[in-house]
Amino acid sequence: MTVSATTARTAAAANPLASVDGLIEGLASVDYIASRRIATALYMAVNLQKPILVEGSAGVGKTELALSTARLLRLPLIRMQCYEGLDESKALYEWKYGKQLLYTQILKDRLGDTLAEANTMDEAMARLHGMGDLFFSEPFLEPRPLMRALNEDAGCVLLIDEIDKSDEAFEAFLLEVLSAYQVSIPELGVITAKTPPFVFLTSNNVRDLGDALKRRCLHLHIPLPDAALEEKIVATRVPDIESRLGKELVAFVQSLRTLDLRKAPSISETVDWARALVLLHASSLDPALVKDTLNVILKFEQDIGAVEPQIVELLQRRPT
To answer: Cys staple from 238: which of 86, 226, 269, 274, with CB 3.0 to 4.6 Å?
Structure first.
């Protein structure tokens, strides 16, 4: 290795965000095998301070990309799982109503003295108004994921998972956060992040997202991997697997994806199957073993029923 190559590798290790190659190596160090397309999109997102919208079928590594980025950068991960009916109070903040009620009871006995000292009705109302403002201040605020992310002084990774499961109203609410890294709270004003978080939004394409949200994000689609990349992923995630078995199971899974299945196996199923085969001390695939473990990679009985008669034929496609 030349001096310049050694210097470049050292720089990449010191600052994985300095280059696309540095990100590929850095993510590999935390067991995420990224294609150059993934690393390039992530490099642009973090250096341009743009949210990144990661789309693709379930199990291709969208959520894992955010988790691995947090591990690589040694930043806290704040995750917000989206669902139908998610609203501002669950995503941004809630008032601690129990604490407000407790303090109200404590101050109840003092209200008479406070109002007795007021000379006019306007002065009495002003004093009551001041107490009302006290109860809607930060000590009585319960931060939720979005506010916690904005309040991280050193920054964080914010994962807004499965944004397509939320409704359009919540999507519109997110626009201020995604464009300016700030939120507006009526009682407190505008809260702006000291250090903008690295924002990942994931989508399984349950519904189409709005143009306004997409404009604020860089877009990354993660497809199912080719055989070579999938073999690297399996070898990284399941280091105990024999090389021959790894090639065979990846070839079998790749063959399954050519069939008309209700749900084709994703990367996560491939890795789970590899772990199951290692657990069973398998060294190679045979029809009986595949039949007994087919439920690990296929999640619907109709798919299992369609594949079982073809197991022998599919195994014949294994690499030599």
So the answer is: 274
